[in-house]
Design goal:
- The chain is an alpha/beta fold and 399 residues long.
- Helices cover 50% and strands 10% of the residues.
- It contains 17 helices and nine strands.
- Strands 3-2-1-4-7-6-8 form a seven-stranded mixed beta sheet, sandwiched between helices. It has a two-stranded antiparallel sheet with strand order 5-9.
- Helix 1 links the parallel strand 1 and strand 2.
- Helix 5 packs across helix 8 and helix 5 runs parallel beside helix 17.
- The radius of gyration is 22 Å and the shape is globular.
- It starts with a strand and ends with a helix.
- 40% of the residues are buried.
């Protein structure tokens, strides 16, 4: 059976389309769990009262539909209080509730109310797990369709370029944390959820930490025959992620989402390659100083040597310690030292690894993202998606 976990905040305009996609599924053995949520104090804020009313209308609409379990965290005195708030807590409540009623071989699909999908999406997830019975989760491919609004389309394309470039380089260097974390694009069996001890509650970013937990215990699938189509929109419903990134980017601020220079990823790869040698002796590696500062221990691997008696287990422990979050922190810390623009970083990457794409893109060498047309930005996005798909499919066959 499939259980759908759906957090909802101010989605009155999108929820009906979502329900249409749910009801059109060819795989009918499913149940939808919805958590309508908001901070409780929004009822006392004039600028938030319309969201509160929209959430109540959403609850009334969902109650008119059969076989939906509604978790109300938006009615007055039922909303979030204190620090326990946000989409991460909504997903946790949903997934923990499903965990109470589902069997270990049932599947949870995490979605968002602004996400569209085809009628065979659930069926494709079932087939995927049937083929990969030991997989912990699926990180489902995604694609933002263009809207016709220049500002929205330019922002989402720039953000997708960042995400796909980042994922491609993680695959290129052999990172075990090669995945794209979107809360609307994750599926997993209940036995895997129980094995990792459930989802960690976060205000935002819970999707990243959930997939990272899965990666540390087993393998995840990065390919699926059907993808999801999240809506591209300016939104501050979450603390960080697609919507807030688009808002900042539309105001000219892409500092939090740079095109990291490929040599920084190479430094991570060279560090990975030293883990085997580090098991036997103290060797130098590119991330040495950074990790010593992060762990506040210049010889952090000594405890791993002591606790893990085989080279294989030691290497796995190193990867678990130098995880996806540490890699991202390293990239953020050292990108400024590269002293190159995002455009230069992307061009140098393509020139070295995919030179055949440069003439196909029809953009000048000294291009600037904010001066490219939607067609040109979309062309870059689509070329990166093709590269990403090659890695996803190769990874799919190895799981």
């Amino acid at each position: 059976m499939i259980y759908v976990a759906l957090p909802v905040l101010d989605e009155l305009d999108t929820i009906r389309y979502f329900i249409e996609d749910i009801q059109s599924q060819t795989f009918k053995n499913y149940k939808l769990f919805v958590c309508i949520n908001q901070p409780d104090n929004w009822w006392d804020l004039p600028e938030k009262i319309q969201i509160c009313k929209n959430n109540q209308l959403t609850i009334a609409y969902l109650k008119s539909i059969k076989d939906i379990e509604i978790i109300d965290r938006s009615s007055k005195d039922s909303g979030w209080k204190g620090k326990q708030l946000g989409v991460g807590w909504a997903r946790k409540i949903l997934m923990d509730r499903i965990n109470e009623v589902a069997s270990e071989n049932d599947i949870v699909i995490s979605l968002d109310a602004d996400t569209r999908f085809t009628a065979i999406y659930f069926e494709s997830i079932i087939r995927n797990f049937q083929k990969h019975e030991k997989a912990m989760a699926i990180s489902v491919p995604y694609y933002h369709k263009l809207t016709g609004n220049h500002e929205i389309d330019a922002s989402i394309l720039r953000y997708e370029i960042y995400m796909r470039y980042f994922a491609i380089n993680l695959w290129r260097i052999g990172s075990p944390f090669s995945f794209t974390a979107l809360g609307s694009a994750i599926a997993f069996p209940l036995w895997a959820y129980r094995k990792i001890g459930g989802i960690s509650p976060m205000k935002s970013g819970e999707d990243f930490y959930l997939l990272q937990k899965f990666c540390k215990v087993g393998s995840i699938i990065n390919w699926n025959s059907e993808m999801v189509y999240p809506e591209a929109r300016f939104s501050n419903r979450v603390f960080f992620g697609t919507g807030p990134a688009m808002i900042k980017g539309n105001n000219g601020d892409w500092e939090s989402y740079p095109i990291y220079h490929f040599t920084l990823f190479d430094n991570v790869m060279k560090t990975y390659q030293q883990f085997a040698g580090l098991y036997k002796s103290d060797v130098d590696f590119p991330l040495n100083k950074f990790l010593a500062d992060q762990f506040k221990d210049s010889n952090w691997w000594l405890s791993l040597r002591k606790n893990f008696k085989t080279e294989k287990n030691f290497i796995n422990a190193c990867f678990e310690k130098v995880d996806g979050l540490r890699v991202l922190q390293y990239l953020k810390a050292y990108q400024s030292e590269v002293n190159k623009s995002d455009e230069q970083c992307l061009h140098e990457f393509l020139q070295l690894f995919y030179p055949e794409f440069i003439p196909q893109l029809c953009i000048p060498i000294d291009f600037e993202f904010n001066k490219l047309s939607i067609h040109q930005l979309n062309d870059i996005r689509n070329k990166l998606m093709l590269i990403e798909e090659e890695y996803q499919r190769a990874d799919f066959e190895c799981v």
